[in-house]
């Protein structure tokens, strides 16, 4: 394929992985989420520690986070940009994440999400994830109510 | 070049860009930093807003941030991992960032840093930057004293 066609095919394939992740998060299906990740994924998450290494660690943390919600989780990706070339790619987007917890609290916020991909055996897998919110320098608090 | 050789050459080139950024941050040289960035860079920074678009915005914010320090800035990259393939690449690392402000405060913290690169006219340029610290779910505060 000419280079432009192969790039846009890669971008479409990665967009489809991100759609799969979106469905998995909404359904609180951690295994479906992890099916898009490499076993040695390293995540920089909103919550400590500084870094989380390996799919097993992420399985545990996502199980805890997602199971705290009652019913489905609301998840929406906005302003997605994908850069693909050869066997490496990355994406950035803003993501709306939220729902109602089992103890009745309504939690919603806009996150910044960066994903790093590698093509492994013909499939694009997430090998790096970075999710965050900014914080307020004055009071040291994470800012959870910013809107894009 | 065989694919492995070209990948490791790309990784070396990106490592050299990251070394250049390290020197620029230490010297508080915003122009040297920006020389490694594409004009349409999009940054997810530690401080609001959710996203910063364009080199000009980043110039302004970095000028403010770096000029608040007295003398040089301490900056050190740890656990750097680079994934390169074709004309896209990304890196992740932990970065120690700090110094003494002009009003005598000592500020140091470990950040998580993800960079997204595109090869433009043969040069690797940063087109995306994501810097963050995690936060404490209990008290809502950004956690600035985590160590790798």
Characterization of the model:
Two copies of one chain form a homodimer. Chain A has three helices and six strands; from the N terminus they run ααββαββββ. Chain A has 148 residues and is an alpha+beta fold. In chain A, strands 2-1-6-5-4-3 form a six-stranded mixed sheet. In chain A, β4 (88-101) and β5 form a beta hairpin. The longest helix of chain A is centred in the first third of the chain and has 24 residues, at 3-26. The mean pLDDT of chain A is 94. At the A-B interface, β3, β4, β5 and β6 of A face β3, β4, β5 and β6 of B.
Backbone CA Rg of chain A: 16 Å
What order do the strands of the largest sheet of chain A run in, or round the barrel if closed? Answer: 2-1-6-5-4-3
- Weakly predicted, low-confidence segments of chain A: none
Structural class of chain A: alpha+beta
- What is the succession of H and E elements of chain A? HHEEHEEEE
Assembly context of the chains: homodimer
Mean pLDDT of chain A: 94
Most extensive interface, residues per chain?
A: A-B, 44 and 44 residues
Strand content of chain A: 35-45%
Overall spatial form of chain A: globular
């Amino acid at each position: 394929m000419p280079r432009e066609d192969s790039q846009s095919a890669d971008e479409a394939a990665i967009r489809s992985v991100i759609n799969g992740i979106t469905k998995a998060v909404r359904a609180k299906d951690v295994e479906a989420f992890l099916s898009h990740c490499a076993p040695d994924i390293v995540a920089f998450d909103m919550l400590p520690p500084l870094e989380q290494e390996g799919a097993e660690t992420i399985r545990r943390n996502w199980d805890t986070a997602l199971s705290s919600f009652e019913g489905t989780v609301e998840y929406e990706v906005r302003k997605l940009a994908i850069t693909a070339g050869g066997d490496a790619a990355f994406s950035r987007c803003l993501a709306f994440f939220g729902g109602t917890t089992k103890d009745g609290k309504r939690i919603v916020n806009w996150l910044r999400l960066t994903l790093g991909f590698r093509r492994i055996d013909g499939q694009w897998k997430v090998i790096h994830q970075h999710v965050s919110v900014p914080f307020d320098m004055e009071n040291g608090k994470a800012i959870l109510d910013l809107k894009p």
